[in-house]
Amino acid sequence: METPPQGGSPATAPLLQVDALTLAFRGVRALSEVSFQVASGTITAVIGPNGAGKTSLFNTISGFYRPTSGRVHFKGQDITDVPTPLRAKLGLGRSFQNIALFRGMTVLDNIKLGRHAHLKTNVLDALFYMGRARREEAELRADIEERIIDFLEIDHIRNAPVSALPYGLQKRVEMARALAMQPEILMLDEPVAGMNREETEDMARFILDVRAEWGVTVLMVEHDMGMVMDLSDHVVVLNFGQLIAQGTPAVVQGNPEVIRAYLGSGDVGDLRRRLHAGIDKREAA
Question: Tens digit of pLDDT for each residue in 262-273?
Fold first, then answer.
């Protein structure tokens, strides 16, 4: 397997390191000794056919699943046994494949929930809304309203109930909530699934901007191969829970194992046409 160096200086430790991660459910392996690194300041994509183990990998990294074996290191710290809320506090923020917003709450209230892991208010402060609680609320609203809402261009829906929003805007609100966690790594699980062309282009722009303007490293699972190949610095490919290839987009799309996983044949030209279909459609529009 060809594994060219990722972005960043060789002397720089990776921001996230996954070592021989294995996950089994009653003997069935969802992941089998998966290892890769995410360099700071990069966009890394995890791809693979349906059932390849991509979401299982995300759930293990973020702490929803406990691995059968293997380790996860974040900023040099072993976080394999760290509870999910503490991982969020350390700087792991994520969205979900299926939207996980509180539909009866407003956009603003949903986004504010993303900051809960960082709040220091105690029960007494919160009960009487005094002192630290009042200051934290003011700081939180300022950060969300002046940075996140403005950045994601959702000022016009800040007071709308999530249940009233179209799907594409709900995905944007979920990204806003993840950004409210103040992540160093933003984990996006299929950020453009179900979106139309215009919504996909907007989300791709936000992903590039959050890396460029906010310095946030991005790790995403995505099926839109045109977007993956256009945005990513590094691509990790899974199939049946195993790592079959990783490297730059150019290297990965020519890898025979990737060809077989997606097509069951060795037609490199056909795969490349499929991988770039999204890009070609956007350019033609």
Answer: 766 555 555 556
Question: What is the DSSP code string of the chain?
Answer: ------SS-TTSPPSEEEEEEEEEETTEEEEEEEEEEE-TT-EEEEE-STTSSHHHHHHHHTTSS--SEEEEEETTEE-TTS-HHHHHHHTEEE--SS----TTSBHHHHHHGGGGGG----HHHHHHT-THHHHHHHHHHHHIIIIIHHHTT-GGGTTSBGGGS-HHHHHHHHHHHHHHT--SEEEEESTTTT--HHHHHHHHHHHHHHHHHH--EEEEE---HHHHHHH-SEEEEEETTEEEEEE-HHHHHT-HHHHHHHHSS--HHHHHHHHTHHHHHHHH-
Q: Could you state, in order of their start, the residue ranges of all structural domains in the chain?
A: 1-91+183-285, 100-180
What predicted TM-score, i.e. pTM, was given to this entire model? Answer: 0.81
| pLDDT tens digits along 38-93 | 999 999 999 998 889 999 999 999 999 999 999 999 999 999 999 988 998 899 98
pLDDT digits (tens, 9 = 90+) for 84-109: 889 988 999 888 766 667 778 888 88
What topology does CATH give the domain 1-91+183-285? Rossmann fold (3.40.50)
| 5-14, 165-174, 275-284: which is most confident | 165-174
